[in-house]
Amino acid sequence: MGTIAVIGAGYVGLTTAVCFAHLGHEVICADIDERRVQRLSRGEVPILEQGLEELLAEGIKSGRLRFVVGAPTAARDAEFIYLCVPTPQGDDGSADMTYIETAAREVAPVLVPDAVVINKSTVPVGSTRLVERALGRSDVHVVSNPEFLREGSAIHDFLNPDRVVIGSDDQAAAIRVAALYIGVRAPLMVTDPASAETIKYASNAFLATKI
Predict the structure, then answer these.
(1) How many domains does the structure of the chain reveal?
(2) Which of 97-101, 114-118, 145-149, 206-210 is the most confident on average?
């Protein structure tokens, strides 16, 4: 199995990175904040999340997890590239996709042919196509693999999910992403990208009614 690059070492990105390393994958996690990268490389966790510190230490000690500055550094030669960057709410209430587009453009020149770029950020329906356009590469695949993480139990939710949702127009790419989750016992849902993005938003809307 090839290297996983995780772009963004925030809440979602860091959880994704340490959990995939725990599952046995080689993971390179990138962030633009050099101080954050240095702290994480020393095993210092910037957020309070049960189990995170232990899995971070495990990943670093095993050599399967390391942190670098800059998306291109992580994405170079990686087979899988997870986009886990912020999508803050804009003035009009819509998701600001600037960080997603910027990350895609930054990694595009260094991607190996047949690489799989995976959107894990919370994004509106149609974002897979936006990433495809930002990449401008016909020889790579773009897949939606939304996160369903709750603050305080993100590690547990990643390793013990209710389901794993993969949205892709390419069956082979979907199978490759599904293989990353070997060791995770959960139903696998493979859909088209727009349906995967819709499932994420529907889940968020449902959770909002429970607050």
Answers:
(1) 1
(2) 114-118
